[in-house]
Task: structure prediction
Amino acid sequence: MVKAKSIPQPTKPLQLNEHFSAPALLGQSRADFGKIPAHRNGGQPVSLPDLLMSGLAVFGLQYPALLKFDQHRNEERVRANLRSLYGVAQAPCDTPLRTVLDAVSPTELRAPVIDLHQQLQSRGVLEGSRYLGGFLVTLDGPGYCSSATSSGADGCEKPHRPGEVEDYHQLLGAVSVDPDKDQVLPLLPEAIPRQDGASTNAGDSKASNRR
Result:
């Protein structure tokens, strides 16, 4: 007797509401960015929240690079999306976006993610993502920039030919996953500094313990 094949069950989507819709989440992010102390002199043409939301829009609107965003930021359709979705009155060009973002502490940029997770927890959304009594988390330690001519105190080092050392930066990315859902929940990334060790496994392990 041939056993009937089991029919795959459809995945359960995350139920969105007025608190977890795109406008609500982006509005919460802008409110959090508005609490970050301005580190520039007054009279700047673009406010710090507009700069930070423009940086977020680079990812949300799926631009491959800041330069590509700079080339399209003044197009009517892009400006309309920036105003309606991100609340950006004026998007900055490539250079100030880089320089201003570099001066903002990564710790201050964690507030939107922390607020989102707190809302998910307080409203019981996370309980629906438990698997075997806990949560499944996948980890990866990608590199995001490197240089053979400049170095930083926290950058990792990779030796090449005698006398040549490449300085590179890595972070530990973590995502909470549920086999029964299409959506994943990104967790806060953690920098992997030189002090975590030279090997990939050692750096990932120490950074994950800090999380």
User: Anything to note?
Assistant: The longest helix spans residues 48-60. The two ends are 52 Å apart (CA to CA).
